[in-house]
Each structure stands twice: as structure tokens, then as C-alpha cells.
Amino acid sequence: MIQHVPLLIDGEFRQSQSLQWIDVTNPADNSVIAKLPCATEDEIEEAIESAAAAFQTWKEVPVPERARLMLSYQHLLKTHHDELAELLSSETGKIFADAKGDVWRGIEVVEQAANISSLMMGETVENVATNIDTYSMIQPLGVCSGITPFNFPAMIPLWMFPMAIAAGNTFVLKPSDQVPLTAMRLAELFIEAGAPKDVLQIVHGQKEQVDYLLKHPTIRTVSFVGSVPVARHIYQTGTHHLKRVQAFAGAKNHMVVMPDANKAQVINNLVGSSVGAAGQRCMAISVAVLVDGAKEWISDLKEALAKVHPGAWDDTEAGYGPLISPQAKNRVLGLIEEGKAQGAVCELDGSHCEVAGYPDGNWVGPTLFSGVSPEMSIYQEEIFGPVLICVEVDSLEEAIELVNNNPYGNGTSIFTACGAAARKYQHEIQVGQVGINVPIPVPLPFFSFTGWRGSFYGDLHAYGKQAIRFYTETKTVTARWFEDDIPTGPNLTIHLR
């Protein structure tokens, strides 16, 4: 029996009255596993009104109590870790190891949300003038919202609503229409952990439903992760309607390989970071920048990539799963063909990949290009598939110029044994997240996820201290009390020196 995915409104999991429903499919065979409603305007309005009413009481809950809720929630997430990963695999196609990593990185953010008491501390200065003190306090904003992508259905929702709710806000979540099941299970566990029934609401849909959230006057913030065109639309529409917006967009992440780097480590890390999760992550390494003698390593890289194959979620020998949809697969295949036509050398072609037992899956095998130049479409566009391209340069300076001329600035890494080269790279590169002998430098949640330039629209980033600033406002109080007003009497006299 095919599941009809419910909405979560006012603490109740309820079936939508929508007349428009979307198929949710398993990418390994494209079978329909659920039906998803596009919520009606009345349903979204009810969710927002419920969240707004809940905010009036939730904001008054003591901060330590909010922290204890997050402690309970992270415990339940850990208890159900493998169950969540299996559910996540069914709708994304991710192999079990990737799915478990998705869930775990989300749990780490919830653990950071449990540290909310210290994160909400303000500042005080005594005697800014004679007998006058000034202090600041951090207060929640109201109803916040999040719009999440298909590729990390556990981690990215957990980037958003736990931090916002721990800070005293309420939240309306709109998960990806391609992978809604994981988000619904996260919500069930959140309520089981003791969350008040209406601090989290979940609505479903597509652009029409997103636009309703973006324009609604009650919504104070919008958090988004997804493609560049949609991120621009989210940012422009949200800010036009006077909302605080953080919109994480596309990427073209480069790994610079110096000739003095450890060759075995380079190849191993390039393989994992380029085709892991089928390349469907905004921090994937999609460009290897081979400096000087490192150009000779392409044949070794090809040999290593050729040993990797995709497979179903429970195939322990598989390196990654399918792409999310037939449309995503066709887009990747089209870019591979463009690369060949534009003169790049296709060292390894995964276009005709097949997986036994899953003839209808969205499979693309590991693909490697050499001889790529910056004007080619496979360099200019985010492929979002298991495709690695190699660009050859003669010096570190050329590598830095290449990366800085790219419009994106999400993540980058350098592999080298030279500290001076590493320091020069980290200092001069115009990218928000830099790895030194680390291929995918996603920071742990006590730091913030800090993409730059065309990879991010907004001012304050996800999780870490910046998330608290994003989900709160600072109030500054200047206070003066007059000693002449101190009450006196038989039992009230205060002796002052």
C-alpha cells in the first residue's frame, strides 16, 4: 500500500485536503513509494497561525528547559539512528554508510542546540557613565521557516529547526518534495522527545507553497539550501518581503594537488570526495587542479575510480547509490556529452552504467575528464553527479587564480606537504571553507557553514554562533538607578560609604 504523506499542523499529523499530489519514488528503481500533497493555502495559513500562537508561550520557556528538550531529542535520534538511515536510503537511494553519515551530521547539530544556554548569553558593561550600566540580551524573533533539498533529508532540516526552536522561535518546515519521509520521522521523534505540539509545523509542496511562505508577513526568517536559480529567487523574494534570509546555493569545489603531496592519500581522497553520495552534495570535489608534476597521476586516478561502482542501499560493496531522478541522470549525461564534444578527454565514461537487478534505476558510473579548460561547460556548471574533471596548471599561483576566478566559493582544499604553500593558499583563496589535506572541509557545528560568493546569499550562515544571530535579535538596555530613591526606614536603612 502506497503511503500518503501527512502534514504536521498544530501538533497533529493530518491528511491534506489538496487536490494536487506528487509521486515520491525510490531512485534505485523509480517505483512509487509514497504520495505527497501540495498543501492548500488554508493549510499553510493554519500552520503559520499555529506557530505564531505557540511562539507567545514558547519564547517564555526558560532556556535550560529548551536545552533539555534538545538533549532528549539527540538521545532519541541516536537510538533510532539506523532506522532513520534506512528510511533515508529508501527515498534518496543513498547507500547505508552515506545515509548513516547524513543522520549523524544532523545529530551533531542537535547536540550543539543543546548548548543553547551559553549561546544565548548577552554582554554587560558596568559604569559606561557615572552610575549607568549597559547590557544586551538575545531574544527570539518569532516564526521561522526552512526549505530543504533532496540530497541531505536528515542533516539539513536538523541544521535549521533545532537551532531556531532552541533559541525560542517556532518553525514551519517545507521539506523537499522528492524526499519527505525522513523529515516526517524527524518530527515524530521531536514530539516524542517532549516538544510542545505546535512549535514545529510541516507543510509540503513545490514553488507555489514556497512562495506563500516567502511572502507571508508572519514569517520572520527563511533558511534554504538548493540550486543557484532557486536560491536567488528565495533571497530576492524573501528580502523583498522584509525577511531575514540565508540561501545556500551551488558550488564548484576545487582540490588543488601539489606535486609534493602524498600520492596515495590524494587519490583515495579524490575518489571518495568526487563520487561519494553520487556527487550529489554541495561540498563534493568536482575539480582536481593538478599542479606541475601531479599531472602525471591521472592514470592512477582513473584506475582507482574504475574500481568504484554504484549500487542499492544495502549493497555493502557499492561506493554510492543512484542519482535522485531520471531528470537528474539525463542532465548529468548531457553534460558528459558536452564535455566530449568540447574537446575534453573522457578518461573514464560512466554513461552506460548498469546495476544488476535494478534496470530502471538512475545509475551513472564514475566519470573522469582530463584536458579540461575553464570555458568548457563541464567546468562552468555544477554537474551534481559522479563526475570529476582535471585541470592542469604549472604553479600554485595559477591554481589560486583559477579558483578565485570561479563564481562559486563554497569549499576547496589543498593537498601538500609544504606548510608555506598551505598557508599561502588558505590566506589568498576566496572561498568560505578550506581544507588542508582534508577533501571536504565541512565544519563541525560549533563553527558555522560559511560558503562565500555565488554559493551563498545572505549575511549569517547555518549552525554555530552565526545561526543563533540569524534566529535572534539583540536588545540593548542602558539603565540608571538613583541612590536617592533607595527606601529607608527602621529596617531598610542601607549604610553607604
Automatic annotation (TrEMBL):
Matching InterPro entries: Ald_DH/histidinol_DH (IPR016161), Ald_DH_C (IPR016163), Ald_DH_CS_CYS (IPR016160), Ald_DH_N (IPR016162), Aldehyde_DH_dom (IPR015590), MeMal-semiAld_DH (IPR010061)
Family matches, as SUPFAM superfamilies: ALDH-like
Keyword NAD: yes
EC number: 1.2.1.27
Pfam family, one: Aldedh
Domain Aldehyde dehydrogenase: 14-477
Superkingdom of the source species: Bacteria
The entry's keywords: NAD, Oxidoreductase
Family: Belongs to the aldehyde dehydrogenase family.
NCBIfam families according to UniProt: MMSDH
Protein name in the entry: methylmalonate-semialdehyde dehydrogenase (CoA acylating)
Species per Swiss-Prot/TrEMBL record: Photobacterium atrarenae
